[in-house]
Structure formats: C-alpha cells, structure tokens
Amino acid sequence: MPSPPHPVPYQGSKRKLAAAILAHVPAGTRRLIEPCCGSAALSLAALHAGRVERVHLGDSFAPLVRLWDEIIAAPERVARAYARLWRDQLAEPRAAYDRVRARFNRDGDPARLLYLLARCVKSAVRFNAAGEFNQSPDRRRLGTHPDRMRAGLVGAAALLRGRATTAAADYAVALAAAEPGDVVYLDPPYEGTSGGRDPRYHQGLDRARLIAELTRLRARGVAVIVSLDGRCGDRRYGAALPAELGLCHVELPAGRSTQATLHGGRAETVESLYVSPALAALAAGGCARPTAGVQGDRRGQGDRRRDRDPRGVRLAGADRP
Ligand SMILES: C[S@@+](CC[C@H](N)C(=O)[O-])C[C@H]1O[C@@H](n2cnc3c(N)ncnc32)[C@H](O)[C@@H]1O
Question: Has residue 158 been placed in a domain?
Fold first, then answer.
C-alpha cells in the first residue's frame, strides 16, 4: 500500500511512528481525536488505513488549523499558492523567505505558513517574544517541490473531506468533547527536551494540568493514547506519567539519534506512549500488572496481569479502557 499523504512538514511529526501507534487503535473506531494535531500524521494514517470513520483535528496554533481548513476545502488553491511562493524564491531564496515570513506575521495566510514550514530549519515552528514566527530558512534546501506538495495536499484532502472536523483551541476543549467509543491521541509539546516555555511551539507543557485533564478523561471512560517524551540511550527526557492514571507504558523505537551520530555515538532514540489498557491489548496482547491500587481492565480481555509483555509493554496501573 502506498504511504499516507503528509503534506505539512512539521517538527515532531509522528509520520514515521504512525503505523506503530495505529496498532493501538481498534479497527472501526468511530472517531479519532487529535487535540494537538500538528501535521495530523496519525489521523491521515488512520483514514488511509481505513481504521477510523472520522477524525477531529485540534491545535492551539490557529494559523495551522486554518491551513488544515484550507487544505480540506480547496487543496488545489493551496497547491497553486504554494507553487507561486516556491517559484518566486528561486532568484533570491533568502530575501523571498524573509518577505513571506513578514507577510505571514501580518496576515497568518495558510499557504504562506505551508511555505515557511517547508523551507525553515527542521520544519520547526519558533516564535519571538512578540509571538511572531521567527524561524530561519534552511539554506541547504528549497522546500518540497510544488508537484510533490500538490500530490500530498490533494491526497490529504481526499481523505479528510467529509470525515474531519477542526478547531483552533486548547487541547482541553477537544478532550471535554470526547466520548466513550472515541480514541484520543494526545501528542502535546514535549516537556523533557526543553525547560519552561517551549520556543518550538507557541505554548509549553503544563504537566499538572495535563495530568488533571487526563484523569478527567479516564474517569469518563474514554480510551486514550499519549505520546510523551522518551529516551535516547540511557538518557530519559521528561518524567513518566503517574501510575494512578492506569495507562500502559509502551516504548517505540524511533531510530538512531542524529545528535549522538554527529558526536560519534550510536544511541537509539525511544519514544514513550501511554496507552489505555484495552488499546494496549490490541497491539501487544496484554497489559501488565496494575499498580497504585487499581484493578484489572473492565473489559476483561483475557489475562493481562504480567509485569512486562515480550513486546515491551509495561503497565503503569490499569483499570479503565
Ligand atoms: C508534538 S506537536 C504534535 C505533532 C503531531 N502529532 C504530528 O504528527 O505532527 C505538538 C502540537 O501541539 C500544539 N499545542 C501546543 N500547546 C497546545 C495546547 N495547549 N492545546 C492544543 N495544542 C497545543 C502545537 O501547536 C503543536 O502543533
């Protein structure tokens, strides 16, 4: 099967991990909710695989959600606008980039954001103190070729049209609207890779609030998958989620660290997923022994009282779906 379309280049995209994460999403899921959608890698992969009926794309970065709205409504228009910006840069790439960035900071135009993401260093959204996009261009490349971009935009629109809702909102809004039967995939800005306010995103991660929101969601019986930090070799980024949440901890190999390779090392990067026990059971055949005074999975999908299953699933407490 060809790979899912992925038109929006975005630092932190889960495109390469999407298949492994999707293994935890039950076939026939009514709705996949991505409250911090970024490039919507998981939603696109889920629709592409026919795994879910509908998706909800939320993000608090409003221009990004506007871009998704435009992609869904008029992918050819976005493709034409992107192609114009891409060609206009050829004579003087740096000056053209600076012009587009200044205009984007005035009007938040979706095609300009797409161009900036395709051209900027590491496709990483960075802001200055005034809230303006201030990431520099990557001088070694010109960004996705317009033909390839058009194919990605049209492919994404074909998957999303009639099946997606969007909202420029805090993740708590999408969580509050989630119902049993939905699967929430929450991929907030990482906590461990930077301290305090994270300049990669326009908001950092407030861990206490995240845990409170997840606790409420779990109490309502909504299945959830959370991506949160991970480790590189022996070095762990960010603290684990508390056992009281009753989520299984799954480690996903994410390839060799480019930083370590640059310094002559060979450390492997591992990303952490925290998964509702009933969903962890889908991919790994079980969720290990509950901790912190919670009982086994209500759905009773066989014996999942092991400390660690052969595929690396560890339980941080289990109870609700
Ligand atoms: C790690 S990225 C998500 C990447 C995404 N899973 C993908 O595959 O591209 C985190 C996203 O969370 C968004 N974000 C940051 N704070 C947020 C908040 N309070 N509510 C909703 N989205 C938020 C950022 O704008 C960013 O797009």
Answer: no
CA of 267 to the centre of ligand 1 (A): 26
* Placement of tokens 């799954």 in the chain: 250
> For residues 131 and 113, what is the distance between their CA atoms, to the nearest angstrom?
14
How high is the mean pLDDT in each 10-residue block of the chain (321 residues)? 93 94 96 98 98 98 97 98 97 96 97 97 92 94 97 98 98 97 94 48 76 97 92 77 94 73 70 92 59 33 34 41 52
Which is the closest atom of ligand 1 to the Cα of 42?
A: 8
Q: What is the distance in A from the centroid of ligand 1 to the CA of 268?
A: 24
* Residue ID of nearest Cα to ligand 1 atom 8: 13
Which SS3 state, helix, strand or coil, does residue 56 take?
strand
Q: Enter the tokens of residue 31.
A: 């709705």
Q: Do residues 74 and 207 share a domain?
A: no
What is the identity of the amino acid at 294?
Answer: V
135 lines ligand 1 (CB under 6 A): no
Report the interhelical angle of 110-119 vs 75-88 (nearest 10°). Answer: 50
Encode burial over 231-245: b for 16+ CB neighbours within 10 A, e otherwise: bbeeeebbeebebbb
Q: How many CB atoms lie within 10 A of CB 108?
A: 15
CA–CA separation, 272 and 284 (whole Å): 15
Ligand 1 touching residue 57 (CB < 6 A): no
Domain ranges, residue 86: 69-152
- pTM: predicted TM-score of the whole model, two decimal places: 0.87
Question: In this structure, what CATH number is given to the domain that contains residue 144?
Answer: 1.10.1020.10
Looking at the structure, tell me whether residues 74 and 194 fall in a common domain: no
Structural domains of the chain, count = 2
Residue 85 near residue 100, CB atoms below 8 Å: yes
Q: CB burial class (10 A; 0-12, 13-18, 19+) of residue 95?
A: exposed
Is the separation of the CB atoms in 229 and 207 below 8 Å?
no
Ligand 1 nearest-atom number relative to CA 61: 25
End-to-end CA distance of the chain: 31
